[in-house]
Amino acid sequence: MFLTDRLPSFKQALTAMPVIIAVLVFLYRGIGPHMWRVRLHAAQFFSRFPQQYVPIPAKVLPPPESEFVGVWDEPPEIVRQQLTEDYAFKQLFRAYLHAYNRQENMTYEVASCAYRPNGITGQWQLHVRLFPTGDGRTDVWAHWELNPNVAPLSHLRREGYDPDRGEQKLRELLDDHVWDRDTWEPA
Predict the structure, then answer these.
(1) Which tens digits make up the pLDDT trace of 143-154?
(2) How far is it, in rounded angstroms, from Cα 26 to Cα 28?
(3) Candidate from 98-102, 113-117, 160-164, 173-177 with smallest mean pLDDT
(4) How far apart are CA 32 and CA 149, in angstroms?
(5) Is 90 helix (H, G, I), strand (E, B) or coil?
(6) Of 41, 129, 135, whose CA–CA distance to 80 is shortest?
(7) What angle (nearest 5°) sits at the alpha carbon of residue 133, between those of residues 185 and 114?
(8) pLDDT at 186
């Protein structure tokens, strides 16, 4: 018996498609809000190994200093919830894992979210990462970049990558209602 004898017909595959889509949507809705936990555990796991032996997509990297925007005076779980529920950010699975040393403790990102002003197929996205400060507040890092769903190779080459524009877009989006500009300083 050949493998092709076991494959479903086009009609069978087409009939199964709504069920497959429903299952994928169900999984996304179930896992989506907890994506940060999946990423956190992956970063904690892969950071245990010498990074030169870890595959590139699983390496744990420090966030670029140029992306630091400031400190949001709310805990990460509140900030993550506000970004995803109030500002239409989507949690990312396909993004490099980040962590950095804060006061001699490894601090792992607790959210990697994207806001795509023109939807999932729009050309650009605002990528925001959140890290706990240890005192109940949230370090915010951001950059503007090409959407990997639209331009995957250009995204990986960092074409259009702009941390300053990321900060500008984040501040415009949140319209300074979230923080007092004078007190939003690095921790």
Answers:
(1) 999 999 999 999
(2) 5
(3) 173-177
(4) 17
(5) strand
(6) 129
(7) 80
(8) 42
